């Protein structure tokens, strides 16, 4: 083993060690082909098997209903900020409704304005995005084309613990930072999408889960590579797909299954985050960013009383092999991203470091 660190980066994030070892082992010669996975055609039967296995594993792990399609698209999650309105705006009132609980919701709503009307259903800005504001879904216009939300907010360390009931309005969820970390009823949603780089694999590609009845409504100006129906028709292969990203996702899903599936990932996430929140709640040095009732199990965010202490914390933690703890530039402070691949041992090491750091500097 090389000098591996515990990687708490917000993303691209830590991958399971067994997954990377398999990639390393197979990289030069994939399954006896004498060629790398990144050298083969995306239309060869060997890759078609990978994409079908990946979809099958995702369906198995999530209990995805049969009337949902699984697509792999370019551009990660942010490309879906454009794809969602382009594919759904034509329905009903040509209006997208947005629950804004942080930066990603704001960016998504801004992008949607290019393709139709938008309304902001709720904005947590008044709380500095430290909590999820209450919202009465009975006031949602049932003629909206869709309602968009971000399930987990990496910058501030908040998440929705319960999802809003939007009635006949398709609920669209950006689940990039907590997908497969907790059990979800996908039938609540019209679309769930996620960039792969946190809990699913490597960056640059997006997973899109879309209900069948939402296909085929793309606006006439929709670019070819943003049309959900076209991706479904061509099995996510209307052009050359990122074969490496899908391959790694397949390995990650196999690893999640070996760990006991999503229920075990959820238990582990609760255990890991509780270790850190207990320290924050009993500390006179650290202050939690997220409101206790709205805390994420994926991103634990906290502040220091002085900038000097933060910089000392980041320097010393880095020296201890606790990597990537700097908070997002918009929030500051520190952030421990503890996605599925982060082992309990890594979080325990961070917890012990935090306790000792406060003892010395509190």
3D shape: globular
Q: Give the terminus-to-terminus CA distance.
A: 36 Å
CATH superfamily of the largest domain: Type I PLP-dependent aspartate aminotransferase-like (Major domain)
What is the number of domains? 2
Any guess at the CATH architecture of the largest domain?
A: 3-Layer(aba) Sandwich
Biggest sheet strand line-up: 2-10-9-8-5-3-4
Give structural notes.
This protein is α/β, with parallel strands linked by helices. It has two domains: 19-258, Type I PLP-dependent aspartate aminotransferase-like (Major domain) (Aspartate Aminotransferase, domain 2); 260-361, Aspartate Aminotransferase, domain 1 (Alpha-Beta Complex), CATH 3.90.1150.10. Helix content is 33%, strand content 17%. The protein has nine helices and 14 strands. It has helices at 17-26, 45-62, 80-88, 103-112, 228-233, 243-258, 262-281, 307-319, 344-361; strands spanning 6-7, 68-74, 95-100, 117-123, 146-150, 152-153, 158-159, 171-174, 191-195, 205-211, 287-288, 299-303, 322-323, 334-337. The strands form four sheets. A seven-stranded mixed sheet has the order 2-10-9-8-5-3-4. Strands 11-12-14 form a three-stranded antiparallel sheet, covered by helices on one side. A hairpin with a 4-residue loop joins β6 and β7 (158-159). The longest helix has 20 residues, at 262-281.
